[in-house]
Design goal:
Layout: E1 4-5, E2 11-17, E3 20-25, E4 30-34, H1 38-45, H2 50-60, E5 63-65
Antiparallel strand pairs: 1-2, 2-3, 3-4, 4-5
Length: 67
């Protein structure tokens, strides 16, 4: 899985593999959001505000801190 750099106040990079969205934050924390479809990932990446879109994902998908 490749992480793509993103322009965001909260996030540094985002990756997606096997229905899991990975989000790396500026503080180095890495979270995995389970059950995120390819379509949701594409919508996330094209959202005008990644922070707002991440808040929506928080409510729809289980997530866990990896580091």
């Amino acid at each position: 899985m490749n992480m793509q750099p993103v322009s965001s106040d909260r996030m540094v990079a985002v990756g997606w593999a096997d229905d899991t969205l990975f989000v790396e934050f500026h503080d180095g924390a890495l979270y995995a959001y389970d059950g995120v479809s390819s379509q949701e990932h594409q919508s996330f990446m094209s959202a005008p505000s990644l922070g707002s879109e991440l808040s929506r994902l928080d409510k729809r998908h289980p997530y866990r801190r990896i580091r």
